[in-house]
Write a structure and sequence with these properties.
single chain, mainly alpha, Arc Repressor Mutant, subunit A, Tetracycline Repressor, domain 2, 2 domains, 9 helices, elongated
């Protein structure tokens, strides 16, 4: 293994371990000593890649832009549902993404100045899609994109205290929220065509299996 490859692996290990600790203890409760103990690396190895805990937190909090790119399709509400479920699934399986969300929830702690934290980026996507859905006539009269955004963001931020312990069922809980939320915001002609079920769920375990259920759409109306 070349020195460059070893350096990449070491940096990845530091970020992954730091994310685990940030998830459990938050920014202020995390120490570089704990990160080094868990990663079994030397302080010299840590400071070769990161000058401080702040710089390490910025690396953890930095989320690739493509994770905030919603799918495209003719039905904006379906695109929003699919995007949110995909994001929830990633939060359930990616400790770095969960740590990014926690650092963001701590009022942007660990985020570089001038960089929108995870929570702000997620909120911007959700609000934009809901506004587009309203412009497309997909929302019932009186449905407020800002209020709906608050409800959805409340889901993501309120589960934060449990991320360090378990993320089992996170996507299913969001799907359940959509199940009860969509009838309140989607127009009557669109509602039967919307699919709020996680795509990864086995067919037999999906709600209403064997009964009349919405057709899977992936952003389109059949």
């Amino acid at each position: 293994m070349t020195r460059q490859h070893r350096g990449i692996r070491t940096r990845h290990l530091i970020v992954q371990t730091a994310a685990e600790v940030f998830c459990e203890r938050g920014y202020h409760g995390t120490s570089t000593t704990e990160i080094l103990t868990r990663s079994q690396l030397t302080r010299g190895a840590l400071y070769f890649h990161f000058d401080s805990k702040q710089q390490l937190a910025e690396a953890v909090a930095s989320v690739p832009a493509e994770l905030f790119a919603p799918p495209e399709g003719p039905v904006v509400l379906q695109c929003l549902v699919d995007f949110s479920l995909r994001h929830a699934d990633r939060l359930a399986t990616d400790v770095v993404l969960r740590a990014s969300m926690r650092l963001s929830a701590e009022h942007g702690t660990g985020c570089a100045q001038g960089t929108a934290p995870h929570e702000a980026k997620l909120r911007a996507v959700v609000l934009r899609l809901l506004q587009q859905a309203g412009d497309a006539g997909e929302l019932v009269p009186g449905a407020d994109p800002l209020e709906i955004t608050d409800v959805l963001m409340g889901f993501f931020t309120n589960v934060q205290p449990y991320w360090a312990k378990t993320t089992a069922g996170l996507t299913h809980r969001l799907a359940t929220l959509w199940r009860y939320l969509l009838p309140s915001i989607a127009t009557a002609d669109l509602l039967p065509h919307l699919d709020w079920r996680p795509r990864s769920a086995p067919q037999s375990s999906r709600p209403g299996h064997g009964q009349e259920t919405p057709a899977a759409m992936s952003g389109s109306v059949s």
